[in-house]
Amino acid sequence: MFSGLVKGVGRIAARTDLGKDQRFTIELGGAVLPPLVVGASVAVNGVCLTVVTTTGAAFTADVSGETLAVTTLGGLAPGSRVNLESPLRAGDPLDGHIVSGHVDGVGHVAAVEPAGRSLKVAIDVPPALARYIATKGSVAVDGVSLTVNSVHAQRFTVNIIPHTQDKTVIGGYKAGTAVNIEVDLLARYLERLLQAGGETKIDRGFLEQHGYARND
């Protein structure tokens, strides 16, 4: 598990074909991570990968054909910048939100515009993911924990403060940029509970009764 608080930006140094899979070599650059060991997990643009080898300043990770196909990793070339985060440890503060590193789909930046010292970024997501994104809820974009400002149909907006612009790849976004999207786990589980039913019927009335929804 991760928190969505990126520890810095690394760089894709090389990609090696391994049949249908690929091995990525990733330089840590300015990212401040605990010492890496073989078998450890690292979130790369929000995708949880396993360290295969490490030199301290760089590591390699195998990426399956499925992951290449359903995330933005398949489109990264040597030199591409990537967000890096190490997994949470027992006792670490959860300053972002719970992020699994299992990307739900790919969105695309629709617009980027100044908003004071921040950036307002609008992102379009596939219809199957749009229903999980709520105003003032959480979403992970390329592994970065963000608060949703607004939602309209399949588009949501987020504000990116200067610190996040400087410390993540989001500062380089432009219209058309493909981004990894992971929706809030709570939304996933809530939907499953609503579908499952059982002795206690979890519906809108139940949620309103317990303070999780409002009738207005």
Overview of this protein structure:
The protein has 216 residues and is an alpha+beta fold. It is built from five helices and 13 strands. Strands 10-9-13-7-8-12-11 form a seven-stranded antiparallel beta sheet. Strands 1-2-5-4-3-6 form a six-stranded antiparallel beta barrel. The longest helix is centred in the last third of the chain and has 12 residues, at 185-196. The protein is globular.
N→C terminal distance: 35 Å
Shape: globular
SSE topology string: EEEEEHEEEHEEEEHEHH
Q: pLDDT under 50 segments (min length 5)?
A: none
Radius of gyration: 18 Å
Percent of residues in beta strands: 35-45%
Major beta sheet, specifics?
7 strands, antiparallel
Q: Which features would summarize this protein structure in a list?
A:
6-stranded antiparallel beta barrel, 216 residues, 5 helices, 38% strand, 7-stranded antiparallel β-sheet, 13 strands, alpha+beta
